[in-house]
Amino acid sequence: MLNSTRLDGLAVGLSLACLVQCLLLPAALTLFPLFGLQYTPDETLHRYLLAVALPTSALALLMGCRKHHRAWVVGAGALGLAGMLLAAFVLEAVASPAVAEGTTLTSALLLMTAHVGNFRLCRRTDCDHGFDQSDVDRGFDRPRG
Predict the structure, then answer these.
(1) 143 part of a folded domain
(2) Could you give the CA distance from residue 78 to residue 97 in angstroms, rounded to a whole number?
(3) How many structural domains comprise the chain?
(4) In whole angstroms, what separates CA 119 from the centre of its chain?
(5) Does 32 reside within a domain?
(6) CB 53: neighbour CB atoms within 10 A?
(7) For the whole prediction, is pTM greater than 0.85?
(8) Quick check: 77 and 61 in contact, CB under 8 A?
(9) Cβ atoms of 88 and 42 closer than 8 Å
(10) 141 falls in which pLDDT band (50, 70, 90)?
(11) N or C, which terminus of the chain has less Cβ within 10 Å?
(12) pLDDT tens, 56-77?
């Protein structure tokens, strides 16, 4: 079943993959000449990750926001996604690699923060909601008090 918690988990995993790739790939590339290898990085990987991260993140954050009504989650997620799009499609062409990578890392951390917040808020909404199943069955699905 498609739910916000599973999508948040997938999105956090994608954000971690992006962070690992951004942090470890440059370090690994410095070792390539020792083994007679050569690698010329291109931005295709970032764009493929974004093609999966954008709809996954948007859907997870919007589904979660419908449950917990915390707009900061969607705002932080939108800023993170916008920064990643900016880095992948604009900064890669016009700025230094350090600026593009710094923007990508900062944006990925912001997006991951939004997903962790969304995950926690959704779990709290599901587990500590202040009403019982009979209230839900009768249509009273808002917390009391």
Answers:
(1) no
(2) 23
(3) 1
(4) 11
(5) yes
(6) 24
(7) no
(8) yes
(9) no
(10) very low
(11) N
(12) 888 888 888 888 888 899 999 9
Say which residue the tokens 């923060």 belong to.
Answer: 113
Q: Which residue has the tokens 């008090």?
A: 145
- pLDDT greater than 80 at residue 38: no
**CA pair distance 88, 36, nearest whole angstrom:** 29
CA distance 77 to 12: 11
Q: Report the SS3 class of residue 131.
A: coil
- The range of the structural domain enclosing residue 58 comes to 4-130
Alpha-carbon separation of residue 143 from 33, 39, 66, 123 (angstroms): 61, 56, 14, 15
Tokens of 53: 């991260």
**CA distance linking residue 60 with residue 129, whole number of Å:** 20
φ, ψ (nearest 5 deg) of residue 123:
-65, -40
Paired tokens of 30? 């410095």
